[in-house]
Amino acid sequence: MDEFVRAVEATVFAATEPVTLDEIALHVGEGDVPAALVVLAETYASHGIQLVERGGRWHFQTAPDLAHLLRRTREEPRRLSRAAIETLAIIAYHEPVSRAEIEAIRGVQTAKGTLDVLMEAGWVRPAGRREAPGRPLLYATTAEFLRHFGLGSRRDLPGIDDLKAAGLLDPLDDGLIQLQLESAGEDD
């Protein structure tokens, strides 16, 4: 396989999405890109992955006769709603926390489904009941939450200064968070 064909192979392989002939040519320079793609398609025809063209775009895919092997193990990325992200953050920073406390901090009601999604993900667990009227259920994060987010412990959660440095807080958010932290400190 000559260097030009290898360069085309590397370009298609490294692309995050299927690429057009023009996009490949931008990376590899002058040469017969269509001919190189034909060579690669023939080379990979009997392998576990194949080079295919769909709608004028080229990409590698699993050979159709082997796709069933990957369907069982493929993990779908979890997409959390904004409510779920806010709820998870509140639980992580204030645990153990009741649903009423979560709602008080968020300023809106929390759907039961939101907590169910977080528990199904293995990131939140019931953590007992508060000794108060109605004995509300308390929620806390799990070891899976720490592992998934690369934290050694809850102490490794980013603080306000870290969030500011990352540009994740605007001045209004900063003031609200500071008030919430101060009120949480009064409860302890």
UniProtKB/TrEMBL annotation:
Which keywords does UniProt give here? Cell cycle, Cell division, Chromosome partition, Cytoplasm
List this protein's GO terms for biological process: cell division; chromosome separation
Give the signal peptide range.
none
Q: Which residues cross the membrane?
A: none
Specify the superkingdom.
Answer: Bacteria
Keyword Cell division applies: yes
PANTHER family for the chain: SEGREGATION AND CONDENSATION PROTEIN B (PTHR34298:SF2)
Q: What is this protein called?
A: SMC-Scp complex subunit ScpB
Q: What is the protein's species of origin? A: Sphingomonas ginkgonis
- The gene behind this protein is scpB
